[in-house]
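Hi there, hope your week has been kind to you so far. Please have a think about how the structure follows from the sequence. I've dropped the whole record in just underneath, so have a look:

_____
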Amino acid sequence: MNALNVAEYTHTLGLQSKTASALMAKAPAAIKNKALKALARLLRENVDALQVDNARDLDRARTAGLAEPMVDRLKLTPKVLETCAEGCEQLAAMPDIIGEILGMKQQPSGIRVGQMRVPIGVFGMIYESRPNVTIEAASLSIKSGNACILRGGSEAIDSNKALAKLVQQALAEAGLPQDAVQLVQTTDREAVGQLIAMPQFVDVIIPRGGKGLIERISRDAKVPVIKHLDGNCHTYVDDPCDIAMAVKVADNAKTNKYSPCNASEGLLVARGVAADFLPKIGAVYAAKGVEMRGCTESLAILKNVPGALLAQATEKDWSEEYLAPIISVKVVAGVDEAIAHINRYSSHHTDAILTTNHVHAQRFLRGVDSASVMVNTSTRFADGFEYGLGAEIGISTDKFHARGPVGLEGLTSLKYVVLGDGEVRA
């Protein structure tokens, strides 16, 4: 497809989305929920067929020498597909927030002023690797009454095409416009440049992928962008804490899965518990092949752990998103130094404290400037599905409009509504 054809193609997608968005905005909740339930059913009915399409993507990725954590993100296992189906059903069971009126107040003039929740309109989603994002984005778009244009990575093109076909089948079953969810069918990168420069059709762009992709979108987009650049998350083990619980949570936060943006990449340990905690978590990480890049103080404690993979941390390690079995380890004086370290080096995605001190927990919650801040649990919970949002369109580390996992509310806007009874302004 040449540049002219790409421009014409994306223009057509935009026009079709804009037309569909007007119909989606007024679609009844029952019809939108019917489409979501149909999509859940179709996903379960097509597990085997979807895995055939997915296998082609996986074969191409491995042939091209894609790193294993990236290959892992491409997999559409039965478990992944079931999670997608459950997400659709969870969304269908949730109340419809479109049209709700908030904060209606009577004014001295006699008018009543409030805000109504409305769809954003059309959003463009540009993402890499994970084909399940196609379903998450589509299902959230349907429930929120929006239309969307999805552009997945070339490495997942067969999987994304198969999933998008099911989405459009579900929309048709419910009597909704199939153009409400469109997948960009070309892998030509020029399509991305066109998509992010169509403010007449697209109301917001949501990039989800590597830092290079998101930096490019943020730099070149002519429409607003909801984004996060990195997932450099931290787990801080406080003094005092429940050591056994801290070992369990710090293990899960790192090793449950290495490739997601909510895996902990940094481990901070209060000096008062370091001698007790570090050998225990060190043994767990050693058994799982996790390399620990530590400060001098932490390495002095960890050096006696059998089989430990140790390296001296550099300044770069404190801000690194590894997406691999590697974690930075630093001993800190206490909660205040932990907060200062996180606010300096983290990507403001998700950071957690493990503590039995309520005052320390509250100080951490208030002091850490991140989209999600946690107490006594794993950073791996920073996810729209786990937060009860049904699914997520992505995670935002911006501070305007949407922050943290972006679910239904993040895909809506508020407009003022004013109710009167013939009042005129003096």
The chain has a mean pLDDT of 94.
